[in-house]
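REQUEST ID: PR-0412
SUBMITTED BY: lab tech R.K.
PRIORITY: routine
TASK: structure prediction, single protein chain
INPUT:
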Amino acid sequence: MEEFLRIHDKFYILATSSLADEQSRVLKHGDTFALFDRHGDIRPLGFEDHGLYHEGTRFLSRLVLRFEGKSPLLLSSLVKEDNDLLVVDVTNPDFETPEGRMIHKGTLYLRRTIFLWRGGYYESINIRNYGLEPVGFSFSYNFEADHVDIFEVRGLKRERRGESLEPRIEGTRVVLGYRGLDERTRNTCIDFFDGPEDVGADHANFSTRLDSHEQATYHLKVLCKTEGSGPVAAVTSYKAAFDRARKEHHELRNDTCIVETSNEQFNDWLNRSQADLYMMLTQTDHGLYPYAGIPWFNTVFGRDGIITALETLWLNPDIAHGVLSYLAARQATELIPEQEAEPGKILHEERKGEMAALGEIPFGQYYGTVDATPLFIILAGHYYERTGDREFIQQLWPHIEMALDWIDNYGDSDKDGFVEYSRHGREGLTNQGWKDSDDSVFHHDGRLAAPPIALCEVQGYVYEAKLRAGRIALETGDVDRGRRLLSEAESLRERFLKAFWCDDLRIYAIALDGEKKSCRVKSSNAGHCLFSGIATESHARAVTENFLSEDFFTGWGIRTIASREVRYNPMSYHNGSIWPHDNAMIAYGMARYGLKDAALKVLTGLFDASIFVQLHRLPELFCGFNRFEREGPTLYPVACDPQAWATGSVFMLLQACMGLSIQAKNNKVYFNNPALPAFLKEVTIKNLKVGSASMDITLYRHARDVGINVTRKEGRAEVLVSK
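STATUS: complete
OUTPUT:
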């Protein structure tokens, strides 16, 4: 019965096709993203997830280029390193002209370049004749727009839909419209430039003739327009739009911290991660926000944004500033059970599509997360330490106070001293930690835990949140409040250690159920207790030994649960898979307790995985099978790729091993017992900002230690190394 419910969970992502075998190409800008095949096409059959999406709606479900009625022959296909441009090289298949002349493959070269900008899709196709004689030929685009909500693409069935409008053909423009049940019209506006000979409701046909070595260029633009939504790109030409998109991209990356190493394969992982990070960043009214992942989560998620900001804080604190500002503006102020909203609670998820507007899904503004609120406070504390931005923290303090009040009141509803969750609305998430599958919290015999559920890692987050908030209060003059918070943190730690530690298992229980019975399951959740610092020194060592055992460590990383657990399945979403962000947070916790060799092992496993995966891009998760010689990791069929917090994992892993921390208030950079893996002889950090100062630092790996040189410094700052 439980498995039936799991499979028929309303928000379960149906796997009708595997993203792992499609080798999809991904572009994103702001609230718009697109999934293509390697030809640059959007095809419905076998690629049900592909499309051009904007604000949670698919505006193009088909866009296929045909040459003489056939698919061109693929030569190469790649997304540029900066993730701003998809480039596809193809050539003609063999075809016969109307005069009976055979044109052999490789005579005509076609280059498609595609990018997204401000709700628009732009494509240029350049065709060149490398033959010795003139060639006449035709090509065409076939297109459709189904205007389905992304939750329909995920597999959710609707009882009713809106109305597809009669297509409008306005010269060389086609407008495909949809009037939703939310009374908003969504239009896909397709403009064909450079003289198509025939434009219809689902096609545009071109005919041309090129002399030997002559070339021609054609352009296509698609705008995603939603009635009552923000403006989309106003420029017309491909070049003007590309120039503006490139300028925005360079401004976003300008003056940022860069990491380079002596290992080119590791640099590939770093460079891809940095490019993906900046692709996932979206400019909001409150600053930069990393959207969670493509295709399913291209929107604001509280927990994902906070963890991504923590992973990248040492590189770019502007991301944390944007996340904190955005979430503070969306902090709940009233009790709304259907949205899981409670005063002081931090947002979980925000959706903009038709189904969210109608309440068919509860995620328009949804607060069903137990951990985002303490994590919000943790990020604020880390941000203040990293930047010394007292003015911003003072502006944020009322929101921190509200979050603390939520922890003490709504978070601890039964007043047992632990923060727990249970679903209050009719719909929404059953489990509300980061492992939010219906079957992710259970007892040793496999029984699902009954709510309210107190997760072990959440108690650790609350512990660190109160420590961080207490220190801010002390520094800003509220001594009584600060001391009280520090005392509450220590009291929580004592209760936690008694209630959650399983001495025979040598690990913390994953949770306490509604009857306060411990769920004695070995899970990666316990590693987050090292991340937060709530674990004791001896417990940290025991937990780490567990994680390095064969039950947990696969050679690629640490599984979400141990392989001997009854619900273990290496192909599951949360019960045996490997998540890069989970591993990064665990490694950070290991390093916090001085367990650098263990942290290095985690870094090495994920680095090895990055060598095998497409584009050196670690996906949201991969399967938890054991590593075998000369084989790569086994991919999860519907993982987001890229996923923001997976993208950020390499930076937190590297920070953990280097022991890097920054206290901008004192203009100091600390390296605590720095360590580097055997495959990294050097790591160079360029343009690291510390207050008003900036510096370049190089770490050198020696046989028994790591040397550090400051190769450039502007402004007043100091580097301190401790062993």
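NOTES: The first strand starts at residue 25 and ends at 29.
REVIEWED BY: pending
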